[in-house]
Amino acid sequence: MRIQGTSGERIRLVPISFLLYQFSLLWFVACFAVVFGVDNDCQKRNLIGTDRNMCVCIRSPRIVMRFHARQQRQQQRKQQQRQQQQQQRRQQQQQQQKQQQQRRQQWLHGQARSETKNISILS
Fold this sequence. Notes:
By secondary structure, the chain is mainly alpha-helical. It contains two helices and four strands.
């Protein structure tokens, strides 16, 4: 399809269907690369990897080091959070056990009192 411009030159327009085809083809290739993990060995080739195995080519090793340091910090934070949660669970369990023991002791003490009352009433 050609349209004549204001200065007399001819402008060639690309049909929309062709653009849609190109765009969909690009998306298919990108999704295929993400799903099947084309770049799994990002660290070996000086690439930065993301969660979905997509890699970004980085030439500067300083940026790569910063990225890996950030990843390590995130992993350490997650591990600390897990440890804190486990510690809180243990403390809660210990408190519950102490409360149960106190209740048992109170109940046993009450039972012993009632038995002594019954014995004194009977005698």
